[in-house]
Amino acid sequence: MMAFLMGLKSISPADLRAQVEAKQVNVYDVNSPQSWQKAHVPGARHLDSTTFTESDLPADKNASLVFYCGNPLCRKAPTAARRAKQMGYENVKVMSAGISGWIDNSMPTEAG
Prior knowledge:
- By secondary structure, the protein is an alpha/beta fold.
- Helix content is 29%, strand content 17%.
- It is built from four helices and six strands; from the N terminus they run E-E-H-E-H-E-E-H-E-H.
- The longest helix has 11 residues, at 76-86.
């Protein structure tokens, strides 16, 4: 099921985990560097939600991109997702649960 958040597609932690394990997705953590160091989705790259450029993202504009931040109230991930869409990426989603929702669902994390 696909939910929409301010015109953006949303993905659940469970669905994201399945895509991460299948290596079908590029995941971007837009939390603070301190938060990213502590815990992030395995394989996620850390980006600043407002200053990343196209060179930080895959060359393929059809690549699957998922952005997340701290929790459902955090606005960094939607901001980053909209920015990627403005750059011409088509397949952009937000894990609105954020890293807190990921951890609450007992999903694995990486540190450092």
